[in-house]
Automatic annotation (TrEMBL):
Protein's name in the database: MFS transporter
Source organism of the structure: Micromonospora arborensis
Chief place of localization: membrane
SUPFAM superfamilies recorded: MFS general substrate transporter (SSF103473)
PANTHER family referenced in this protein's UniProt entry, alphabetically: INTEGRAL MEMBRANE EFFLUX PROTEIN-RELATED (PTHR23513), MAJOR FACILITATOR SUPERFAMILY ASSOCIATED DOMAIN-CONTAINING PROTEIN (PTHR23513:SF6)
Localization, UniProt: Cell membrane
Amino acid sequence: MTSSALGRDFRLLWSAAVSSRFGDALRTPALALLAATVTRDPRIIAAITVVGQLPPLLFGLLGGVYADRWDRRRTMALVDGVRATVVAALAVTVALDRISVAVLLVAAFLLATLGTLFDSASFALLPALVPPDALPRANGRLQAGAAVAGGFLGAPAAGVLFAVAPALPFAVDALTFAAAALLVLALAPVANAHSRPVLRRGSVWSEIVEGLRWLRAHRTLWRVTVLAAASNLAISGIMAVLVLYALDVLRVPPAGYGLFAAAAIVGGVAGALGASRLAARLGTVPALRAVLAVETVALAGFALARDPVSGGFALAVFAAGTVVWNSLCASYGQRHVPAGLLGRVGAAQRMVGLLTAPVGAVLAGLAAAAYGTVPVAGAAAGTFALVTLAAWRTLRPAAPGVLSPTAA
């Protein structure tokens, strides 16, 4: 089933998401390359990466509040318009050779901060554009499009454009943000609860607490969120040492690492396209449990692999499972969370999941330095085995007709 079968408005949203993701895939490596031309101090280069990771943790919940307060379609268009302006200003600064570490830090922080509001509004708007039973298919198409635009198109093009002119990737990124803003504005105004802002009922803090309490009270959604955070600990750890594991353990030639890494993209696309079929066949919650089991087997196979072919295949299967999990988790939340809370609850889920990522990366780095990368892969597989066991013991499908936030 193609995205066209989901309707005109979904096609517009899909096109906006793909355009924006293509620009992101150009900007992210170009920003790293640009930083390396300004300084060779690894602490400063790392700081530029870190400031881009902080806003979701600092402002994610706040972005969820305003995604519920403001018109989501207009919010997304406005945010992309502002991001286009910021990146265009960065392109001009680079072209004039006025770039500095301070400019890079501010740009990375500002773009990531705006992204928290955009992500919350986008997550909350999707249920207004497609029927509830089409959400797994819609989320899968969004992830597949983003993977192709980012992994197959944007990332390879970034280095080429930067070599032509350092300002060029940022100029193209600004155009993609502007195009995304226009595409979102072309969406038909949606006259339902998923697009309307909610009436303010209290302070920003009280609305944040309301979203957190709702998430904590919904047994299944909270358990899924905790399981996702636990699995992110392992995913972040294995990704932190992936290049070393591939080169040293799997004996991937340096020139072939890009092809090896592409296995994850291929797997992700396959998972995204198959997520809706799996949910339709098993049901969302049983599918989530099955996916964790498959990921555990794949990660165990990756930890045992000693050649590029078997390692790449295991990585592709694991990536497919990860994308299916993400698609189905998003769809489950979009179906069960009240429309007026979607921004806040979705933001809370993302924040909880992100909290474990830096911990996993740090632990993996320390363990790899002390014991090598093989134990890190084994520990990641063991973590997934525990997560899978917990999922099979605690996740249960919701009873038909149960609307209470404590429903399983």
